[in-house]
Amino acid sequence: MSYRFDWSVLWSGPSGSWLLQGLVTTLQISGAGLALAIVLGIASGALRTATASPLRWLASAYVEFFRNVPLLVWMFFWYFGVPPLLPQTIQDWLLDRGVESWAGIFALGVYHGARFSEVMRAGIQSIPKTQLEAALSTGLSRVQAYRWIILPIALRLIVPPATNETVNLLKNSSVALTIGVAELTFQTRQIETYTAKAFEALIAGTLIYLLLCLVVSLFFGYIERRVAIPGLFVQRRLEEA
Amino acid sequence: MDFQVITDNFSFLIVQGLFGIGAFAGGTLRLAGPAIVLGFTLGTGIGLARLSSRPGLSLAAKIYIDFFRGVPLVMVIFWFWFIVPALAGRSLSEYVVALAAFVIFEAAYLAEIVRAGILSVPRGQVEAATASGLRHGQVMRFVVLPQALRNMIPALVTQFIVLLKDTSLASIIGYVDLTKAAQIVNNREIRPFEIYLFIAAIYWLCSYSMSLYARRLERNLAAP
């Protein structure tokens, strides 16, 4: 192999600022996508354990459809397919602000929301039924029981699988390069295109991703220790499942 | 909305895009099938290495798994797209690049599933098999792996479905799979909503039938 490494391409010229911009964009769309995914995941995960069957059915349909189709297809769907159907004023508003970031955030959020939903459902189902029964017998309505008793416990139980999903979402944000979002992988490719130094660019991008995943895991590990419910047996059951 | 565009291009999308029969060397299933078989083979090897009593081998497997689980698949595909030709000194087809990237990437995930499956087999089984005179390889081959495989089926099929969906990313290096075929059709017809919704439905059918089959398999193989 006669490849000559030249690491200076990463700081001479605009490469460094490209990588930084890419990192910021990756964090932005991942963060916004994560927020959307968590909201959708909690709502649909809770509805899947509901007693009213139309609601349960609706939530299941959402999860089964979005989870079983590639994220890339959803990227194209939200980017190419949906905007032309929106009213003109919203289209203009989106065009001003970059349709691709919004499409990327929606694709990530809705797709991962369906995956979070499964995590949430498993968390709720691992709580003993008596917990809900006790809450209802104290006079809480079903919605109140979920809001004040079931969801808070479930959220504290699902931190480990939620960590996995968050890391997955972060990595999947790279798929947004296909619709032109200038995130980290996009910028890595741009450096490769401009400098013809594939190894250096890809190694730099790869290391940043590894570092990001490590930071997310450490952060969630800290959260996990903070919110763990000491001695609650359902925790053990969830790990066994 | 006008679904005429789907009926007009149905054979290109399905025959070329999904099955890979036609003018382009492509096809989602032609990529996903071998990737599943080879990825599972490599994943089993790495999963066994991870459980090996030799610390060097176990550490190497751990590094492999942790590395690929921390990197996006898109990045790995670019790795192979730019670097394998540089190392090999000649360009490779999209099919080979995509297949290699998927096998090596997914093996890291499959290895974890294999490891968990093997650990789920009770120790007493190994001890009983060893006591009956089987060698280590035989214990693995005839006692541990069959039981582990049964325990792994749900996780394994979930991962195979993930792999099937991930093959859509091969389109970014120009491999003509179902997603790329949809892009080609869309460039001509400009009916993105209908076309992408249609291929979403096709992917869904493939994934869902896999999970239905897995459920049946699980029932049939359940220990009495």
Sum this structure up briefly.
The complex is a heterodimer of chains A (241) and B (224). Helix content of chain A is 77%, strand content 0%. Chain A is an all-alpha fold and 241 residues long.
Q: Which key phrases capture this entry?
A:
heterodimer, A: 241 residues, MetI-like fold, 11 helices, 0% strand, B: 224 residues, mainly alpha
Q: Would you tell me the overall average pLDDT of chain A?
A: 90
| Tally of strands of chain A | 0
The named CATH superfamily of chain A? MetI-like
Helix content of chain B: over 70%
- Based on CA inertia axes, which overall geometry of chain A fits? globular
CATH class membership of chain B: Mainly Alpha
DSSP strand (E) fraction of chain A?
A: under 5%
CATH topology of chain B: MetI-like fold
Q: How far is the first residue's CA from the last residue's CA of chain A?
A: 48 Å
Order of helices and strands of chain A: HHHHHHHHHHH
The CATH first-level class of chain A comes to Mainly Alpha
Low-confidence stretches of chain A: none
